[in-house]
Design a protein that fits this description.
303 residues, 14-stranded mixed sheet, 14 strands, 36% strand, elongated
Length: 303
């Protein structure tokens, strides 16, 4: 694999890792890069415009610095550009949860993450598409969406991962609206639901393995519906996820599909990769196979 000569960096200014963006610039220069394109944004919503500008320059590698929201916005922009999937993406996990990086085994230190971006394997990954917007880790509506919505912004900046625990406790007794769910055009679920999750990888918010068999390159999305109500039922559900398989919980229904249609009796907040979105009564989620190319650590050979 030849060393990337033209590298684009799209960085969230408020996120940090190691020695910060100064160290990132130094480590990239140590890789012998001839042309470095540098774009900084004050928040993840500003990333897509800069990603598209970067792709116009046809870089050999695009590096994204930030958390899951920044990565999601970046991959969504790349998937929306013709030929964008040809440009490998290196993730520098400088956020709160860094779920995609964790699921892919990207090191959580700056040196290791940069090394993976330049020397790692280029792996094609599926993305989910919810109401037209791509995500890489998961999408959720109901309990999960409300928890993420309340943890967004200043609370997450102040408390980090604990913000999810704090806000989650506040929503344990939220109402469970009637949900109708179709998978690949077939009726699958019709009952009260506190949360509907669609996953592209196994580990979600809080480090919980929600989808035991999920793989980000198998052409499928995993679907889970929770019916737990109150602290006792949620404790049993989380405990089952921690020590066994999620599907073994009496309050969880699971399957996999390429398209998921959810209709709710009342609008609920939803989230994509840890970023809150406005409340809706309907969502459609579809898989976009091999939509992006991401740098991951090379597998060690036993020989």
């Amino acid at each position: 694999m030849r060393t990337p000569r033209k590298v684009a960096v799209v960085a969230h200014q408020r996120k940090t890792l190691g020695g910060g963006l100064d160290e990132l610039r130094r480590r990239i220069s140590d890789e012998g890069v001839e042309d470095l394109l540098w774009y900084e944004v004050p928040k993840s919503k500003k990333a897509p415009k800069q990603v598209r500008r970067a792709l116009e320059k046809k870089p050999d590698l695009l590096i994204v610095w930030g958390g899951d929201g920044m990565v999601q916005r970046t991959l969504d922009a790349i998937a929306g550009v013709k030929g964008g999937a040809k440009v490998p993406v290196g993730i520098i996990p400088a956020g709160t949860a860094n779920l995609l990086a964790t699921n892919l085994g990207v090191p959580d230190d700056l040196e290791g993450a940069v090394r993976t971006a330049f020397q790692g394997e280029r792996r094609k990954l599926d993305l989910g598409v919810l109401n037209g917007e791509h995500f890489a880790v998961m999408a959720g509506i109901g309990f999960d969406g409300a928890m993420i919505h309340d943890a967004d912004g200043k609370l997450k900046d102040r408390m980090g991962k604990l913000s999810y625990v704090w806000t989650g406790l506040r929503h344990l007794n939220d109402p469970a609206p009637k949900a109708k769910i179709k998978v690949d055009g077939t009726d699958w679920f019709k009952d009260d639901a506190t949360c509907v999750l669609v996953g592209n990888v196994g580990t979600i918010t809080g480090g919980i393995t929600a989808f035991d068999d999920a793989k980000p390159d198998d052409g499928w999305l995993d679907v889970g519906v929770a019916t737990a109500r109150g602290a006792a039922q949620w404790a049993r559900t989380m405990g089952r996820m921690a020590v066994g398989r999620s599907e073994d919980s009496p309050f969880v229904h699971m399957t996999r599909a390429r398209r998921i249609d959810v209709k709710l009796r009342e609008p609920l907040t939803y989230e994509l990769d840890g970023g809150a979105r406005d409340a809706v009564k309907k969502i459609r989620v579809e898989v976009a196979p091999a939509a992006v190319k991401v740098c991951v650590p090379r597998q060690r050979s036993d020989s």
